[in-house]
């Protein structure tokens, strides 16, 4: 887990869970499979197989595997996209709204 030295306003939880991203800015409203790497009160990061432009609006859906914990659905804005490893990209998003 990332700690205080990370200098963020909120602690981030390591998640590493499969999720679905729907690009809502795109005319085709396409979906991408992603791995949610971490989550905080105001943002998330994902690993995807293609680049997403900063400013793009996305709908992120993470299904819960525990009946006591609800699934997460969030509208978010891409704030960064950097090359990762093995032809992947790391995407950071700012959460705009939870539903």
Describe this structure in words.
The structure is a single chain. This protein is mainly beta and 99 residues long. It has one domain (10-86). The chain has no helices and six strands. It has strands spanning 13-23, 31-39, 43-48, 57-62, 72-83, 89-98. A six-stranded antiparallel beta barrel has the order 1-2-3-6-5-4. The protein starts with 12 loop residues before the first strand and ends with a strand. The model is unreliable at 1-5 (pLDDT under 50).
Salient structural properties:
99 residues, mainly beta, six-stranded antiparallel beta barrel, 6 strands, 55% strand
Care to give the gist of this entry?
The chain has no helices and six strands. The chain is an all-beta fold and 99 residues long.
């Amino acid at each position: 887990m990332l700690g205080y030295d990370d200098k963020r306003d909120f602690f981030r939880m390591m998640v590493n869970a499969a999720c679905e991203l729907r690009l809502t800015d795109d005319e085709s409203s396409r979906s991408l499979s992603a791995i949610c790497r971490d989550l905080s009160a105001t943002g998330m990061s994902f690993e995807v197989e293609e680049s997403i432009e900063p400013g793009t609006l996305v709908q992120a859906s993470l299904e819960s595997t525990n009946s006591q914990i609800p699934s997460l659905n969030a509208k978010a804005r891409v704030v960064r996209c950097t090359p990762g490893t093995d032809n992947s990209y790391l995407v950071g998003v700012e959460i705009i709204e939870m539903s």
